[in-house]
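Help needed: design a sequence for this.
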């Protein structure tokens, strides 16, 4: 029988410091949200660049719809204005009657709301917009993130340096262990990387925002049946596979991953907590293995420094 394992309790000063730090971050988020609520009620003018090339795209679901306006308000308060902000909602889950007044007010200021089908789950943040605007610069945003005013300009500045690369604020570097197996997601989180070099091994994580240049993803990104079979809940993995098939590298906007404030109460039941098993395994691990095997993508990790990936075959 396998012996039980026990976590070592951290020293009291460390635990106290962590509690104080969490309280400080939560206080900042609540103060910011109070300003956003006021702006939602009183805001009148558009904050979009007419004819702009950049489209910011987001999705949400029923449980978060009522608070999603907070993240959207921060997108309307960027120092560089996007051409459009689009909210994609699953048509089989939500309808016009479900939209709260907070979203209706944003629509009057230019927010585009689309009810989309089929339902790509979290992939709705990008795939429907990518299908409608393949020639535009698309930027995905998360519904539980309070985006700072420099959020979009940071991505665009990096895009100007490397226009053919996907740009993310938060990225992980995929790698294999000594046995040739993909390193588990929990270990990648602890060593996310510290450079901005475009590469095939960098995987963008959508929580902090990702910029996709035109035609950055393989056309099979729209294969709903295949996505639902291989990785229905892990859009980051699916988009990474589609970028590799298209030969598009990924880079971080800055050397280190930033930490954005999150919408209060949105993390009461986090997807990561629900899906990670007691031994630390994540659904991303299974999806990474499944997708890399299905599309024969291992060669891209070996070729990351040379820029010449081994050709891959679609499943």
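Sure. Designed sequence:
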């Amino acid at each position: 029988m396998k012996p039980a394992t026990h976590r070592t309790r951290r020293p009291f000063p460390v635990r106290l410091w962590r509690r104080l730090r969490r309280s400080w971050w939560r206080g900042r988020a609540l103060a910011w949200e109070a300003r956003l609520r006021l702006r939602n009620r009183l805001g009148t003018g558009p904050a979009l660049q007419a004819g702009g090339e950049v489209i910011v795209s987001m999705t949400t679901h029923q449980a978060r719809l009522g608070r999603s306006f907070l993240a959207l308000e921060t997108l309307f308060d960027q120092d560089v204005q996007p051409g459009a902000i689009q909210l994609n909602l699953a048509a089989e889950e939500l309808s016009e009657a479900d939209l709260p007044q907070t979203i209706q007010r944003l629509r009057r200021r230019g927010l585009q709301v689309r009810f989309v089908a089929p339902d790509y789950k979290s992939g709705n943040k990008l795939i429907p917009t990518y299908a409608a605007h393949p020639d535009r610069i698309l930027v995905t945003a998360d519904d539980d993130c309070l985006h700072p005013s420099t959020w979009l300009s940071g991505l665009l500045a990096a895009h100007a340096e490397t226009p053919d690369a996907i740009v993310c604020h938060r990225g992980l570097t995929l790698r294999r262990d000594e046995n040739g197996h993909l390193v588990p997601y929990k270990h990648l989180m602890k060593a996310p990387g510290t450079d901005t070099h475009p590469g095939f091994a960098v995987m963008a994580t959508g929580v902090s925002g990702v910029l996709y240049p035109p035609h950055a993803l393989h056309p099979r990104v729209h294969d709903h049946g295949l996505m639902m079979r291989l990785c229905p809940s892990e859009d980051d993995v699916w988009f990474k596979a589609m970028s590799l098939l298209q030969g598009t590298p990924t880079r971080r906007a800055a050397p280190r991953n930033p930490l954005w404030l999150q919408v209060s109460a949105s993390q009461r039941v986090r997807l990561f907590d629900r899906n990670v098993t007691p031994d630390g395994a994540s659904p991303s691990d299974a999806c990474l293995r499944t997708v890399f095997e299905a599309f024969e993508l291992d060669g891209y990790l070996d070729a990351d420094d040379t820029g010449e990936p081994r050709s891959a075959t679609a499943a």
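Residues 54-302 form a domain with the Spore Coat Polysaccharide Biosynthesis Protein SpsA; Chain A fold (CATH 3.90.550.10).
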